[in-house]
Write a structure and sequence with these properties.
Blueprint lengths: L2 H17 L3 H25 L3 H29 L9 H7 L13 H28 L3 H25 L18
Amino acid sequence: MTSEERYEQELKQSDIDHHTPTAGAMTGHIIANLLIHSLKISQAKLFAQGPATLFLDQNGDKWIAYEQTEFASLNHLLVNNGESIPTTTDQFKQFTMLEEDGATKYQLGDDQLFALVKDFDTQILFITKAIALAEKEYWPELANNLTGLLAWIKEQIALTQRFLGHDLRTGLYTEDDDDDDF
């Protein structure tokens, strides 16, 4: 089988896995989200102004380092278990659920910081789903890794929300957001 044929086979399997979610497929979304979020943190560190600059100077590099470590760890964990991972720009764009907008760098620093908090919150949705799937598929090392990532993200949300003067869940996703008004 040629390398092109193998890659086409991988893409077909990935499409199947994403239509019937598996822990591996859900973790592919997490991997993409981590990469894009790291880029967004870098952008905010370069362009945010005001008090958010001090917060990002203190925490931004730590966030990036942690996310990059998780990115590498999850990639290895999936590959070592025969799973596909996103490896191309097109796949990262396809699998991320984080929004990107170049104009964001011109927003107020606190708004840029809060956008990063919302991205952390979005990642929680995928991580909790992947943990449940990993437990169902009896993949304890993946569930353990993701549980650590989940705890870290929740800590960063709490830290940043306090800095911004927000209550913990202010402006973040709640289950009620999905409810229809009757």
